[in-house]
Every structure is written in C-alpha cells, then in structure tokens.
Amino acid sequence: MSGLLKLKTAAELRQIYLRHEMFPTIFCDGCGLGNVLNYTLWALDELQLDLDRTVFVSGIGCSSRLSGYVNADGMHTTHGRALAFASGIKAAQPDLNVIVFTGDGDGSGIGGNHLLHTIRRNMDLTVILVNNFTYGMTGGQVAPTTPIDSFSTTTPYGNIEYPLDICALAQTLGAPYVARWMINQPYPPIKSIAQGIQKRGFALIEMLVPCPTAYGRRNGLKQLETIWQWYRDHTILIDDYEHIMHFGSPEERAALHDKIKIGVFQDYERESFEERWATLVEQVKL
User: Fold this and answer.
1) Does residue 44 register a pLDDT over 50?
2) pTM, full prediction
C-alpha cells in the first residue's frame, strides 16, 4: 500500500469525485458511511479509474444513498433490487466498471435472492455491502445480520434468530473475491475495494459500520466511543482466529464465540458471466 502515500489530498478527492450540491450528507453523527465513501474514493484514485466508464448502483437504505454523492453515472434503484439493475448494466455494457453500494437489509434481506443468483452467475460486479446490523433508515427493525439477543423495534425482548454470515454465504457460492473489514482501519478496506474492482467476476467487500442511532441506542451503544470500541473488541483477523483455534488454550478458543472474523476470506480466479456470454455469442456466430 506504499502507493497510497502519493495519493491526492482529501480536499483534492472531494473536488474530483464528489457532487458538492449533495452536501451536507444525511448521515448521523458516529455513522461510518462517510468512511466507506472515503475509502472507496481512495481506491478509485489508487486505480485511476475512469469515472466516465464507471457506474454506481444502489438500492434503498442509508448506505444506498452513497451512490448519489459520487460525481459519476449512477442508479438509485428500488429496495433490494440493486444487484438486478447492476447485472443488467453489466450484461448490456460489459466494458463498464459497475460498483454497487448496498446494506445488510437491502442486500441480504430484501435483496437476498438477487444476491444468491448474482454470485452464482459470477457477474463482474464490485459489491460494497454495509452491515450495520439493522434496517437503519426504515425504523431500526431486526435485519438478517442482527446479532442474537440484540434489541430492535421488531425484537423488543431480544432477537432469537441466528444472524446470517454474508461472507460465508458468498464463499460457499463461489464468489472469486470475499472480504470483510471494520471501518476504523482505513488501509485494509481501501486495498480490498481496489482488489475487488480489479477482480474478474463477483467481488464482495462487507464493511462493518456502526449505527449509533438505530442499533446503538437500543443496545447500550449510543455513545460514539462506546460503539466504535465494541467493534474493536468483537472483531479478529482471520489469521489470528485460526491460530487460536489450532494452538490456543480451551479458554482462548471459548473466547472466540462472539468474535467476528475480518480479512480476505477468498481470492481466486473464475470465469465470469460476461466472459462465458462472449464465448457463447462467438460460438453461435460460427
């Protein structure tokens, strides 16, 4: 990541990449969505990506507002349908870079079926999925990723459902690139977003983002430092997790039960839908 030291200043990034008329943002104090946008811009600049050949797509929710801040072509679509629209764009114009902003509710709840089949097809998309454990914009309801025993507007006595591990799902379905990061460490997610954009086929970067307003205040995490510290305390790098599982004491292994693994889970090459489609077209021509 040494190249990052030569990147433009934050002021220069704002001038180049953002729509100034969209500010100030709608994001609450302590929300990490601004960080996600910032890391995405750093990755774009690292790659010197042509914004005229890049489309940003999003669905509905707090995270889905991110596409509107980028000074490039974009689609703010219907709830849960971001991947369907993005797939259509990529199928029609395979030379475009298509980046999707979605949330845990929009992407894995309302849009869960689209997530399954977009990965299965191996569409060449970069999906930045913001996981804040809740349906933040629509009222703080329980989401597919809400931790067990957590409180929400629809689980006032605590959530009894096991949370969905989105990265494990993507791995199982064969996504060529799968990663998860928290937002208080900038360089790993910047690097992952850049790698995801460069990857042929489906790339998923899940970002763990604090939501003090909808999730935090119902779960004793309303104070900003408290909720950010919660993420530090409850995440662990994949390598550290596996080392403890193999060589740790029973007590150390038991302490992993409430840890969320972060890092790059999967990174390999696999022929994309667009490549297979192009091959089929050529065969039909013959």
Assistant:
1) yes
2) 0.94
